[in-house]
Amino acid sequence: MKRIIYIIIFVCASAPLFAQATKELQVEGIKVIFKRTDKAVATVNLCIRGGVTNITEAQQGLEPLALTIALNGGTATINKDALAAELEKLGTEFGADARNDFSYMTMTCLRENWDRSWALFADAVLHPAMDENEFKLERERMVSNAKQLEADPDQYLRILATQQLFEGTDYAKRPGGTPATIEKLTLQEAKDFYKYLLGKQRIYLVIVGNLDEKDITGKVKSTLAALPAGQAPRAPQTAAIKQGVKISNRDLATNYIVGLGNAPKYYSPDGPLFQFAMSMLYDRYFVELRTKRSLSYAPSAGYNNSYIETPAAQLYITTIDPKQSLEVMTAIINDVKENGFKPKEVENKKKSYLTRYYMTNQSSGAQANVMSTCEASGNWRIFDEINSRIGQVKTEDVNRVFNNYLTDVQWTYLGKEDKVTAEDFKQPVAKLPASNVKQPKD
């Protein structure tokens, strides 16, 4: 009972926070998405569209490398050490990262230090020093990280799955790079690429905090408005998810499996609905695979939106009994397809789903990151609409999207080869005609 009361209080308390107005501004050709909050911390994300379409295969790793040394390596008027010292004194943090569809440079600061923090951020963006020593240090760090990813079976499984699914397309490229590609990158390439990236047609700003709209407009006009128009990025090549199996042998204590299935795009009407359905599949996996059968410590199911033009239903498990695990994972999907999720199950899930959504998006940084992804997905307004969208979810709609989209699964396996055969990787039943789906009961 205490948990239920807590959820109700939390959701009610969070709704006004997320209901605060978000505005879209156009400032000298730059789109600015501004969410005003009452928080003492403000976050700015300067996002750059394009992701893997901005780079060639040989340039994998170049985007995060260029953005990081630009933002953290000092400027034409303040060296790296002095910049780091002032940021520490202010309590301001800079960061940069690159994803498959967009990259970003971010700044988080205390509201009281907003003016000076913005000045330092804008100076770093517009006038980066990008010296040779900083470039070499960051390149070495990235090479080390890339090698660690390939050594980690969990991460390597996902690399294998991506290569299998997107072979020959833009999404097969790795934004963070491979050890081989990063080692060959040069400082001049980074400088030229950074200049190429920063154009008004490619960037947008997401700002969250207790800030003034006129002040934001003025700051953008006096700084980032000086950027050239540049070129808009092209759309990535995509690949349809097809049935398939890839088995890779590695002598591991446990075996790693991931399945990627069809899913609607996040900005489509079915996107958030399908994400909700996959969160319900997660619950069934947890109960059946972990609690009842002890087949895995952390089975999961979810909606993978990290490839915006080819999102996927993601099925995952680590297990010492892959044959039985695969059989149960597929059987659970088929049971949902035939009998559907129950109305009571859907209603109960709404509360916990929204609670988790609000809890994970409490900070200004988290809100800025989700809105950045929503905008890259085609509509930043999804972030503010999620409460009403989930609140209006009907059981028949959840069952419809689950039945329609989760059809073909591409499986990837990393572990002991003699533990499985290709025949163990079953496919869900095909899309059932509506007449064959039983009416769910409480």
Automatic annotation (TrEMBL):
Pfam families, sorted: Peptidase_M16, Peptidase_M16_C
Signal peptide from the UniProt entry: 1-21
Domain of life: Bacteria
Record-linked SUPFAM superfamilies: LuxS/MPP-like metallohydrolase (SSF63411)
InterPro entries from the UniProt entry: Metalloenz_LuxS/M16, MPP/UQCRC_Complex, Pept_M16_N, Peptidase_M16_C
Domain Peptidase M16 N-terminal, residue spans: 32-166
Family: Belongs to the peptidase M16 family.
Name the UniProt record assigns to this protein: Pitrilysin family protein
